[in-house]
Write a structure and sequence with these properties.
Blueprint (H helix, E strand, L loop, with lengths): L14 H5 L8 E5 L4 H12 L3 E6 L2 H15 L4 E5 L5 H10 L6 E4 L17 H16 L1 H7 L3 E5 L23 H23 L5 E6 L13 H10 L10 H4 L1 H8 L10 E3 L2 E2 L2 E2 L7 E2 L5 H16 L1
Parallel strand pairs: 1-2, 1-4, 2-3, 4-5, 5-6, 6-7, 9-10
Antiparallel strand pairs: 7-8
Helix pairs in contact: 2-3, 4-5, 5-7, 7-11
Bound molecules: NADP nicotinamide-adenine-dinucleotide phosphate (NAP).
Amino acid sequence: MTGRITTPFTAESTAAEVITGIDLTGRRAIVTGGASGIGIETARALAGAGAEVTLAVRDLEAGKRTAADITEGTGGNQVLVAPLDLADQASVADFTERWDDQLHILVNNAGIMASPLMRTPRGWEMQFATNHLGHFALTTGLHRALAAAGGARIVSVSSSAHHRSPVVFDDIHFERRAYDPWLAYGQSKTANVLFAVEATKRWASDGITANALMPGGIRTNLQRYVTDQELDRLRAAAGGAGLRWKTPEQGAATSVLVATSPLLDGIGGRYFEDCNEAETGKLGARSGVAEYALDPEAATRLWEVSVSTLAH
Ligand SMILES: NC(=O)c1ccc[n+]([C@@H]2O[C@H](COP(=O)([O-])OP(=O)(O)OC[C@H]3O[C@@H](n4cnc5c(N)ncnc54)[C@H](OP(=O)(O)O)[C@@H]3O)[C@@H](O)[C@H]2O)c1
């Protein structure tokens, strides 16, 4: 097995810097949540390198504005917009059925954080439903297109918040335990890492690899459910008030690196942060990856649970 992947890039690097010199002409990419926050900068960098990029969004007007803005800046590259609501399985099925031909890069970027208890009509806890189950259905629905690309990459945008919770298989949807918005977020972000582990195991023979990442801390719409006071408290507890926010361009860099760097050719099932592969970290840590998030048995179990959840 290849050792830990390191690159010349750092927490300060931007998406434009990590993609310099990479030509994505003829490649097709999807960025979920591509009309907000780091999704915009991820899409901008991929389109700037010549890829055809589809912004998969639930707010079509925001998608069109973003597509126009990116196209203006990158000069004529194709940026498309398609509706996708990850919390609605019919919408996900619609998206995958309409997708035609190859898919080289899938950036599973959309997400919600620390929302109050909400459930989908099928009773699934909303953060797990959106952040994990929606992307699970999307990616498995696109498997054929990914396999057809030859060397496709899946990017699973996770978070250091995965240290807050493993996937609690006994009660994923908080039916028998008290709801906690941060445990639910943490659980869904652990699921994002486990998904990369199992997708690589199942699909490497199709030339598909999947990796997960922590983008860093970036002020975006993601914090909509969290007060400034609570954010300050969390950041102080995590390592002092001196922690610096990244810009969206820096926040998109690790996603873009994982999606495109030749240093990751054939590499899958790993977790990156600040543009390098992370070391193993401990529960409650702010950096590194928890062992339970890379656990192959948990990854297989999550895949099976996800299949059966979607089927019922
Ligand atoms: N920002 C950070 O500090 C940070 C730290 C760690 C990890 N992350 C991860 O980075 C990713 C991107 O976050 P961000 O900071 O760029 O947040 P953001 O600006 O809020 O963007 C998230 C995107 O996800 C979309 N989304 C939410 N629910 C959806 C649904 N049901 N169907 C389709 N799209 C949906 C949002 O759409 P709407 O605009 O329609 O709501 C939005 O476009 C997330 O996965 C997040 O967990 C971010």
